[in-house]
Design brief:
Strand content: 15-25%
Largest sheet: 7 strands, mixed
Distance between the termini: 41 Å
Radius of gyration: 19 Å
Order of helices and strands: EHHEEEHHEHEHHEHEHHEHEE
Shape: globular
Number of strands: 11
Strand order of the largest sheet: 7-6-5-8-9-11-10
Number of helices: 11
């Protein structure tokens, strides 16, 4: 039984109702008509769902027991603005991002990291993002296509990201060898970050498989450099990281795994 589903807002009209049914068919998810009464929490419990994709007149949104998630570029916007002012970014440094590079983000989420990578690599580069959760994939991929912000550089960076649905462990073997310059993983932290209340609706909708050495090996077939974002330095070292970077005042670390350094 699926832990994800698709529904529609109440008083949706025929067009939106049919659009939601099309989403469900495209994603291979069950469609549930929206009851006239009851809360979304009751709806999730009744259907046994962890997250539901809801068609609204403002676009798709994801509902979980933790709340409602609508697509937004998250921290990607202030990070890009900081870069435009001449600032630095830990992801950019760890991945050694430059214009024209090819980047594979194996844990797309809300694409905050992917949009920073897209901005730095520019129109000459390529950023592909993999998302295992079908409801998050749909909300984010639609957002990347249609979201517009006053800063044209950020809007264009969003629109360049290529989102693909699937689990990294299933999709990595399908890419040709050496098809990227860097592969990036940002797996969902096992415990929420202290001040991440605004991101809580994301957790029940996300895919929570931990990284293992086989996935790192698969990534190293595609790129000479793999970067993993994690708080546990011991875990990073167990995955093969010989170098670990991070901010002075942050617990978040970036483990860097080089192809030639892995035995």
């Amino acid at each position: 039984m699926s832990i994800y589903g698709v529904t529609v807002i109440r008083k949706c009209g025929t067009e939106l109702y049919q659009e939601a049914r099309t989403w469900a068919r495209t994603l291979g998810l069950p469609f549930f008509p929206r009851p006239l009464h009851g809360t979304m929490e009751q709806f999730l419990q009744e259907k046994g769902l962890r997250a539901v994709l809801v068609a609204t007149h403002q676009g798709p949104q994801v509902c979980t027991e933790e709340g409602i998630l609508r697509y937004h570029p998250s921290m990607g916007v202030p990070r890009i603005r900081n870069l435009k002012r001449g600032g630095t970014d830990h992801l950019v440094q760890a991945c050694q991002l430059q214009r024209g590079m090819r980047v594979l983000d194996c844990t797309l989420g809300l694409a905050a990291d992917a949009v920073v990578a897209s901005f730095v690599t520019g129109p000459e580069g390529k950023v592909v993002g993999l998302e295992a959760s079908p409801v998050l994939y749909w909300a984010v991929s639609q957002g990347l296509q249609h979201y517009v912000i006053e800063d044209q550089d950020i809007t264009e960076s969003l629109h360049r990201i290529q989102a693909r649905l699937g689990k990294a462990e299933d999709l990595l073997p399908a890419f040709p060898a050496d098809s990227f310059d860097v592969v990036y993983f940002d797996p969902m932290f096992r415990k929420p970050v202290g001040n991440s209340a605004s991101m809580q609706p994301l957790r029940p909708a996300s895919y929570h498989k931990s990284l293992d050495p086989s996935m790192i090996r698969a990534a190293l077939r595609l790129a000479p450099r793999v970067v993993v974002k994690e708080r546990d330095e011991d875990l990073l070292r167990s995955l093969g990281a010989r170098e670990i970077q991070g901010g002075k005042y942050s617990r978040i670390r970036y483990g860097i795994i080089e192809r030639e350094a892995v035995v």
